[in-house]
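Entry 14. Structure prediction run on the chain below.
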Amino acid sequence: MGKTLIKNGYLVTMNPKREVYSHGYLLIQDEQIEDLGPGIPKVDARHCERVIDAKGMLVLPGLINMHQHHWYTLFKGISEGYLLEDWLQQVTFPLTNALECRDLELSAFLAAAEMLTTGTTCFFNHSVRRTTKEDFAAIAQPFLQAGIRHIYGKELRVGQETSVSEELSQFEDLLTSWQGAGHGLLQLGMVIETSAHWLKTGVTSEALIKEGTAYARSNRLKISDHITGATLWRTITEQIRQTGYNDVEYLARLGVLGDEFLLIHCVWLNDKEIKLVSELGGHIVLCPASGAYTAGGVAPAKAMLEAGINLCLGSDGPMVNDSVDMVEQMKISALLQNVKYLTPATLSAETLLEMCTINAAKALGLEKEIGSLEVGKKADIAIFDLQKPHYGVPLRPPVNLVYSGKGTDAAYVFVNGILRVDQFRLVSIDLNNIQEEAFTRVQALVK
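Output returned:
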C-alpha cells in the first residue's frame, strides 16, 4: 500500500505516557504505524504515496464503540416515549421476528457508513436475535467490504430444541470459519445474557452461563451481557425474584465473573456490585444516551472509576438513541455525570477519550494492536477537522472536540492503514441503491 504521511496535526497519542504533540506527524506503512512524533517528519514527503496536511486538525486513535446492535439503524425514530421494558415487548421482539436476511445485510452497510463517517473504526456488535450461518454471512460481508473493525457477539441460547453442547458446537463452527477474516478485521465474541427477562424466557441457563464462560476463557473471547440497564423498580426486583441476587452478584455467585465479561449499561449497580467487579474483573460499558433516551437512569461512573474498573463507552443500538456518533456519546456522558454528581468535569475530556480508545481496546483484549497511536500498532486513525465554524477558536483541541465537535467532523479515517473516509467522503462503499432498497423494505416491516 505504500507510505502515508500525516503532518502538521495535533496528535493525541493515548500512549502510556499520554503524550500530545501539538505540531506532530505520523507515518503509516501498510497496515501499521511506522513512525510518529513532534515537529518535522523524518521521512521525505516525496517518497510517500499520500501526504495529508492536518493543520488545524486533531489526530486520534480511531474511536471504538463498545456496544452496538447494528440492525437497529433501520428503525430510528420509532421508539420515542417507551421505557426499555415496554420497548422490548412492543417494538424490538416483533421486529426481531420480522427481519429477513437481506434486512440484516442492508443495515450492516448503513451502520458501517454511519460509524466510519463519524470517526469510529472498531465496534462490538451485540446480537439480540438468532443468527444462522446465512445471517452471519449477510452481516459479516458488508462490514468487511466497508473496512471497519468488527467484533461480532454471537448469541448463545438454549431451549427445547438446543442444548448447551449443541450451541457451543455451532459457535465453534462460525469461529473456525470466520475468525480473523479480512486481515483480522472480523473477530467473534459471545453474548450470554444473564439478567431476569432473559432467564424467565428460558433461553439462558446456569449451565449455559458456566460452560459458555469456560469456553470463552479457554479461547480468549469476550462475553457481552446486559446488566441492570432499565428502570430500577422493575428490573432489579425481577432479577432478585428470579435468582435471589442482583445482576453482578449472580455472576459472582456462579463463579464466572472475570476479565471476559463486558458488562453493558450497569446503571443501577450498588456499592457491593461495584466492589465485586473491581475485585473479580470485568469491564463496564456505559451507554449514556441510551439510558437517558429510555429514562433508564445514569450510571455511577465516578464510583466505578474510583474502584479502578476499566470503563468504556458505547452508543447502544440506534433505535434507543438514534445515533452512534461517539463524539456525541462523550459529551452526553460528561453532562449527565456532572448533573448526577453536581460536580463539573466529573469525567474529564481525557478520561472520555480514554474510554473510547485505549480503555475499549483493553476491554477487547486488543490493546497491543489498537487504541493508541504507537509505533507498530495498527493504523486505525481518525482525523477531525477543528476548523469548522462551530469550534470557534479551538484553544484545547481534545476538550473542543468533546464539547463542540461532531462525529461528522472526521475528515479522514483509516482502518488497518487503508483510507476509508477521504475529505469527509466514504470511499469504501456506495450507499445510493442500498438506501433506496432499505427505505422500501423498512416501510413494509414497520407497517
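The radius of gyration is 21 Å.
Filed with the rest of this week's runs.
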